[in-house]
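[job 4471] stage=fold_predict status=RUNNING
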Amino acid sequence: MRLLHLALVLSLLAVAGCGYRPLYAERTGGPDIVAELARIEIAEAETRLGQIIRNDLISSMRPAGSGEGTGEYRLTLKPDNRTSAVIANAQPAVTRRSMLVTVEFELFKGDKSVLTGTASSRTSFDVIREPFADMQAEKNALERVAHEVSGDIRLRLAAYLTRS
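[job 4471] inference complete, writing structure tokens
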């Protein structure tokens, strides 16, 4: 039993000594990631997809009631949405469609571009030839991939801000 305790203590010391730090942990002597993310101003969206992604980023990066970013950082988003057929059944009443959302993003500090990247996500949905159900299925698929893409962008921004 004593050997087991010793092994546990040694493994905890090894993990603590390897430099691992949780991304959103409070830091001393380094940037506070939550505060840094809240300072990013996100450009207005031109499309519904861009608006969903922007709103999701704002709500996840800023504490409630904190308002807009300070403008120290500025994020631009260029979303693209493509839908294609996956399965076309012999029964013409039901088909499966695939949606791919790709977003090119760029983070600026002042006028200087400091981070660029592309985030993408794919999902699928059924088309059953009922107009309202088909519209809702596509809308739901769009919101799902927008949420996944915004989470990916937020994580990349946080990772960049920990290094800067």
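[job 4471] summary: The CA atoms of residues 27 and 33 lie 9 Å apart.
[job 4471] exit 0
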